[in-house]
Amino acid sequence: MASTSRFIEACWGRPHDRVPVWFMRQAGRYQEGYRNLRERYSFLEMAHNPEICTEVSCRPVEELGVDAAILFSDIMIPLGPMGVDFDIREHYGPVIAHPIREAGDLARLHMLQPEDDLPEVFLTVEQICRRLGSVPVIGFAGAPFTLASYLIEGGPSRTYQNTKRLMWEQPSVWQGLLDMLAEATVRHLTAQVRHGAQAIQVFDSWVGALSVEDYRQFVLPVMKGVFNRLNALGVPTIYFGTATGSLLPLMRQAGPTVLGVDWRTPMSEARSRVGTQVALQGNLDPVTLAGSWPAVEDHSTHILREMSGDPAFVFNLGHGVPPEAKPDNLKRLVEWVHQFPGPA
Ligand code: CP3
Questions:
Q1: 8 Å CB contact between 262 and 242
Q2: Distance CA 149, CA 174 (A)
Q3: Fewest Cβ atoms closer than 10 Å to its Cβ: which of 45, 112, 265, 342?
């Protein structure tokens, strides 16, 4: 497909030739070229360098033949210019110097002005588009809940106890923080589209920590506002989280074009929970990629059979490519998925 991409067509639920495929975290430490760059630069140095980001974003398309590129950046990047002092530790994740715990901490944050604050990110989007031609570029940002969870916990968490307690015990601080993060997320994604992104993904990786009732009360209204504004941009919007099986119907109500599904929920089950008015993306268990090919083939074939004939399906993993993934598995997997026809 030259001008219309099978990835974009599948997002809109329109006919396309083959099942489209890309991978969350398709750029990363599983690649030898990436590891070589990381010997010379820290992750954050890389993330602010447009030449390196362009190179790293384009390589998976050129090496694996995936149907879309995703901007190389991180959900934490917009928080720097908003006044958050953080670092990203290898094999751990983001670490925040002064976590947010009360109203006074919120007052320290200021609103993102995307093009003034992060010109390198938008230059990167433009450069990727120019280099890849007809292959679409996916822009992304963190969702308010997931960003808030890092800001409140101060780093990764298993229980999200500080986040939940702030949400329950200081609802006005919670609302203020989520509104501010929602505004920043919309501004950041709008600017990415302005500079050429043809689809956008909102990563709410940790929202699955919430109960259905807490999601409905404390997150859904904000996400409805976010997707309402993002959908006006005219590009497909993707909403992804992990461990969200029971939240999927409410996440659909938030209004994205595409819902991401992790490996815990069968794709057919996800489809029956959300109906046919939304596209689905997922959901191979990323751990298969670290092992031998037969497990990758078995698990991916199961997904492809479940979704066979579904006009609105994008093949992906249930979460990001792990550093232990074998590059050859990813390459074979792209070829394998592309053997399956899309719906006429
Ligand atoms: O998908 C892609 O190829 C685009 C790049 C991308 C990165 N981070 C690069 C990255 C994307 C889309 C993200 C989003 C992101 N960042 C999320 C949401 C997606 C998800 O995985 O749930 C989250 C939760 C983060 C926060 C974050 N940043 C984590 C948990 C880590 C991993 C820490 C580690 O060492 O494993 C990072 C760092 C990070 N972001 C790396 C990459 C390639 C590894 C950095 C390195 O080279 O050491």
A1: yes
A2: 11
A3: 45
pLDDT in tens, 302-318: 999 999 999 999 999 99
Write down the pLDDT at residue 3: 56
Backbone angles phi, psi at 139, to 5 degrees: -90, 160
**Preceding omega of 283 cis (within 30 degrees of 0):** yes
Contact between 45 and 340 under an 8 Å Cβ cutoff? The reply is: no
Q: What is the DSSP letter of 208?
A: G
Instruction: Evaluate if pTM is beyond 0.90.
Output: yes
**Which residues, given as ranges, of the chain have pLDDT below 70?**
1-3
* Strands across the sheet containing 199-203: 69-70, 137-142, 199-203, 237-240, 258-260, 279-284, 313-317
Q: Active site includes 74?
A: yes
142: which DSSP letter?
A: E
Q: Does the CB atom of residue 203 touch ligand 1 within 6 A?
A: yes
Task: Decide whether any atom of ligand 1 lies within 6 Å of the 114 Cβ.
Answer: no
CA 67 to chain centre: 16
* Domains present along the chain, CATH in parentheses: 22-266 (3.20.20.210)
Note whether 8 and 311 are within 8 A (CB): no
* 3-state SS, residue 201: strand
Contact 107, 116 (CB under 8 A): no
Q: Which of 38, 194, 264, 332 is catalytic?
A: 38
DSSP state of 343: P
Encoding tokens for residue 106? 């919120």
Give the integer Cα–Cα distance in Å for 16 and 5.
8
